[in-house]
């Protein structure tokens, strides 16, 4: 099932306090409309009761899509600096829900699930999109690292990230976006052939892949966010 709870949120436009039904967990197998709403950017958005401007809650929920083989712990973008602590807590939640600490039937479900942690709306949306497009997220992150080497004017800074938002006939559409405000700074398209190049050089990318896949936060940003976590031998 999908769980909701009542939350208060202050409208950033007029300051009015709105009551919004916040989601705590999304089951996309039973509620594909919620998955579609996340992809469309309309999930947890409602007009302010006072000024009618759209008000959006931060993501803070668990997302389950067994048919897509995906489980996501979605956190607010502003919490990314607390990444290691949150990863530990997410690992524990997952362990009890679908891992070694769960019932046998749940563990069987867990065998098909990829466990992921995201910060902010653009990130959770991207994970769902990539899974639907059949693109491995670690490879998508390698593509971004590759692109950053090719784009000297990339507006890279803390709080600004590169996200894949669509796939068209021309390739993958990417945006530079402020994680919290979701202000888009630049948009461009990258040829999907770049992904094939990465797949063709598995050995060269192996150390970066290992770092990306070490923990549920599969995101290139962790490679330049301080010490990070040691890769297990
Ligand atoms: Zn308002």
- Unreliable stretches (pLDDT < 50, length at least 5) are none
Shape: globular
| Residues in helices, as a percent range | 25-40%
Number of helices: 7
User: Major sheet: order of its strands?
Assistant: 1-2-5-6-7
* Distance N to C terminus: 39 Å
Q: Based on helices, strands and strand pairing, what is the structural class?
A: alpha+beta
Order of helices and strands: EEHEEEEHHEHHEEEHH
Beta-strand segment tally? 10
Q: What's the number of structural domains?
A: 1
Strand content: 25-35%
Report the radius of gyration as a whole number of Å.
Answer: 18 Å
Ligands bound here?
zinc ion
Q: Strand count, sense and closure of the main sheet?
A: 5 strands, mixed
Mean model confidence by pLDDT = 92
Pfam family, one: CpXC
Domain CpXC: 9-144
Protein name: CpXC domain-containing protein
InterPro entries: CpXC_dom
Question: Can you describe what's shown?
Answer:
By secondary structure, the protein is α+β, with helices and mostly antiparallel strands. The protein has one domain. Helix content is 33%, strand content 28%. The protein contains 7 helices and 10 strands. The protein has a 5-stranded mixed sheet, sandwiched between helices. Helix 5 packs across helix 7. The longest helix has 15 residues. The protein is globular. The N and C termini lie far apart (39 Å). The relative contact order is 0.11. Bound molecules: zinc ion. Zinc ion binds next to loops.
């Amino acid at each position: 099932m999908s769980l909701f709870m009542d939350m208060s949120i202050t409208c950033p436009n007029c300051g009015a306090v709105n009551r919004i039904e916040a989601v705590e967990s999304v089951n996309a197998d039973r509620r594909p409309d919620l998955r579609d709403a996340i992809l469309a950017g309309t999930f947890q958005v409602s007009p302010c009761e006072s000024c009618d401007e759209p008000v959006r809650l931060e993501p803070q929920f668990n997302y389950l899509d067994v048919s897509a083989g995906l489980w996501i712990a979605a956190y607010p973008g502003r919490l990314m600096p607390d990444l290691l602590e949150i990863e530990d807590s997410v690992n524990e939640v997952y362990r009890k829900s679908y891992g070694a600490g769960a019932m046998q039937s749940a563990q069987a479900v867990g065998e098909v699930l990829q466990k992921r942690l995201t910060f902010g709306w653009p990130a959770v949306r991207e994970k769902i999109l990539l899974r639907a497009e059949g693109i491995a997220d670690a490879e998508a992150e390698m593509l971004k690292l590759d692109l950053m080497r090719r784009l000297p004017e990339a507006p890279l800074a803390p709080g600004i990230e590169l996200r894949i938002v669509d796939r068209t006939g021309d390739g993958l559409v990417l945006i530079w976006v402020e994680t919290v405000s979701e202000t888009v700074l630049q948009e461009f398209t990258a040829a999907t052939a770049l992904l094939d190049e990465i797949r063709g050089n598995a050995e060269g990318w192996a150390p970066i892949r290992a770092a990306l896949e070490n923990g549920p936060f599969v995101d290139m940003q962790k490679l330049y966010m301080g010490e990070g976590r040691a890769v297990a031998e």
